Amino acid sequence: MIQLSKPYITQMEIDTVVEVLKSDRLSMGRYTELFEKQISQLAQTKFSVAVNSGTAALHLILKALGIQQGDYMVVPSFTFVASANVALFEKAIPIFVDIDPRTYNVDATALEELLLRIEQGRVHINGQRVRIDKVKILMVVDVFGQPVDYDKIEPIANRWNLKVIEDSCEALGSEYKNKPCGSFGEAGAFAFYPNKQITTGEGGIIVTNNENVAKLCASMRNQGRGEDEAWLNHVRIGYNYRIDELSAALGYAQLTHLQEILYKRDEAAKRYSQLLSKYSWVTPPYIADYTTKVGWFVYVVKLDEKINRDRVIDYMSSHGVQVRNYFAPVHLQPFYKELFGYSNGMLPVTEKISKSTLAIPFYTTMTLQEQQTVVDILKEAVERVG
User: 321 CB contacts (<8 Å, ≥6 apart)?
Assistant: First the structure.
């Protein structure tokens, strides 16, 4: 089986984690601080706060920005479900915006139109009119490592007084016009699940230039303790969102060869695009002109809409190649439909793209021979069952 993804682990990572295991500090140690400093340098932000998942990072940012019950957060539906779920954690309500058909990111025109409809009282959720003054947050997502077009999005957010959160959980190392992803908006988040550019096993991090956001997130990740971190002094509600020292050490070691990792993943992406260029029924990932660097997370192709994508997935999986659909629309997840009455037809571009996108095997150490096998099996699947 050619796996969909696999982490890139060297002897350095193993030695660094063993070093921590042999120490007497398995939580809140020096590697957490080192990891945070390195991420801040990479993202060009003043502050970083490491946590135990990308979901935790997004949740803490949202809470630090003061979202409350009954508020609304605008977010794309073409994303991992956590991007929207964090609003529900605070009893806020996600409102979904459609995407650009090429980049799969928030479409600026669709965003403006949505906000105008809300202002005019033409957007209802479960029979209740959405009030524009209750729309507080815009969560943008750098999908698959492709940056959002911030020059178009930020003026809209400013006009409507929306605080911007950048979900860069898939975009470590990506750049928008030579500026790192994660450095836009009030705060950003990266995630380090094993399929990401680097991994901490499980883990995430908040990056921000807002000192108050950083302080609040650092407190809330650690059970709401104050800045002195006195063990039984809790100044606000908090969570056990700390990253453990083993995970931080793994992440720190991974960062020492991040540029090598990004280079190898970029080369693999280029090889795929070349191998697939001869076929008219598949579209490789689109890279916008404003994207000066892609930190490749996954390699997602779009199949011709006449092809039965799900049958292709079954065929490839039964022939030794692990593939997956990316993404299923969040607004059509069963519990979102039940809670808010969201339905098919709300987001035509998202729904169309979601039916035809396919993630094929992609990882740092992938060889040309493996990629050729993947492409051959994909072609075979399209011809036989597609």
Answer: 1, 2, 360, 361, 373, 374, 377, 378
What the block records as the tokens of 248 is: 């931080």
335-351 pLDDT per residue, tens:
999 999 999 999 999 99
- Spell out where the chain has E strands: 47-51, 72-76, 93-97, 124-125, 128-129, 135-141, 163-167, 175-176, 179-180, 187-191, 204-208, 282-283, 291-293, 299-303, 357-360
Give the single-character DSSP code of 107: P
Rounded Cα distance between 128 and 184, Å, is 32
Please say whether the beta carbons of 132 and 123 come within 8 A. no
Token pair for 201: 């096993």
Which domains occur in the chain, in start order? 11-255 (3.40.640.10), 258-384 (3.90.1150.10)
How far is residue 48's CA from residue 67's CA, in Å, rounded to a whole number?
Answer: 21
Q: Residue 323: which of 272, 278, 261 has the closest Cα?
A: 272
| Integer-rounded Cα radius of gyration of the chain | 21
Single-letter code of the amino acid located at 69: Q
Distance CA 118, CA 141 (A): 21
Q: In what helix (H) or strand (E) does residue 262 lie, and over which residues does it extend?
A: helix 258-276
27-45: pLDDT as tens digits = 999 999 999 999 999 999 9
Q: What is the mean pLDDT of residues 375-382?
A: 98
pTM: 0.97
